[in-house]
Write a structure and sequence with these properties.
The structure is a single chain. The chain is an alpha+beta fold and 265 residues long. 22% of the residues lie in helices and 36% in strands. Strands 7-8-9-14-15-10 form a six-stranded mixed β-sheet, sandwiched between helices. Strands 1, 4, 5 and 6 form a four-stranded mixed β-sheet that branches. Strands 11-12-13 form a three-stranded antiparallel β-sheet. A hairpin with a 4-residue loop joins strand 4 and strand 5. The protein is elongated and about 65 Å long. The protein starts with a strand and ends in a 7-residue tail after the last strand.
Length: 265
């Protein structure tokens, strides 16, 4: 049976006209599916469905999404991230337990550090925005320097993050940076060149409300603060209070980032 599939020109160019027509005819494309963005059920026989092609160095995976969640597109991602996305999409490994945060070793400007990352919803001008809060577990030194100094925020400002004195405005977009969300889970924060600045060792679960917000806005607000500034807050209102305090004390930088592969990425 023909499918209500949207196959963008860039996806068609990657998979070829023959494969695209085969999918549109219903050969090889699913009727029902789990949306690769919001993870709720979809039906390509009854509703407009986007084809989303994730492309790495050696691997390519075709996924499906509600057309209202994400347009048909090609998403270039690091091979390691794509392998994690493959496991999530195909179910080859068990999904992680729901968790709002995780601490993983990452390469950050200034060298190796352990970054804690927390997801939450931030209310700005009456609208809920999906946000990530990044805080290292130790001071970040500038490359080539020694001593107890912490250059985490200055290094991020050099990358284009903006110092925040309050949290009542949406941070400016940061060119070249993006958020990789696949199979409804958070995989990485990508810097220019599609290089993972933060990467989960297993895809990080986010709440249904967070996914709904990111599907609406198509962007994520990323806040960063020095070690010991925010901490692990058990509720979103306490997280917001900690962000407000960090901003007042001049210890908060932020940026707005699109989803990987979306316009502006």
């Amino acid at each position: 049976m023909p499918r209500m599939l949207e196959v963008s020109d860039e996806v068609r160019a990657e998979i070829g006209d023959e494969e695209a027509e085969r999918l549109l005819a219903g050969d090889g494309s699913p009727g029902s599916y789990d949306c690769t963005s919001c993870r709720t059920p979809g039906d390509s026989e009854r509703e407009q469905t986007s084809t989303v092609l994730f492309v790495g160095d050696e691997t390519a995976v075709l996924a499906f999404a509600h057309a209202g969640c994400i347009p048909s597109q090609v998403v270039s991602v690091p091979e390691a991230d794509l392998q994690g996305a493959v496991r999530s999409i195909t179910g080859d490994s068990p999904a992680p337990a729901a968790s709002p945060s995780g601490d993983v070793p990452q390469s950050v400007p200034g060298g190796q550090a352990v970054l804690g990352i927390t997801s939450g919803l931030i209310l700005i001008n009456g609208e809920l925005h999906p946000a990530l809060v990044v805080e290292p577990t130790a001071p970040i030194a500038r490359p080539g320097t020694t001593g107890p100094g912490d250059d985490f925020l200055p290094l991020l400002i050099e990358q284009g993050f903006i110092p925040m004195t309050e949290t009542e405005e949406v941070p400016q977009a940061l060119s070249g940076w993006s958020i990789l969300l696949a199979a409804g889970q958070l995989h990485s924060v990508l810097q220019p060149g599609q290089i993972a600045w933060w990467q989960a060792h297993r895809p990080l679960s986010v709440t249904d409300g967070w996914r709904a917000a990111v599907n609406k806005t198509q962007r994520v607000l990323v806040y960063a603060a020095p070690v010991g500034t925010i901490g692990q807050q058990p509720r979103e209102d306490l997280l917001r209070d900690a962000l407000d305090k960090a901003a007042r004390n001049g210890k908060l930088v932020a940026a707005s980032m699109p989803l990987a592969g979306t316009p502006g990425a």
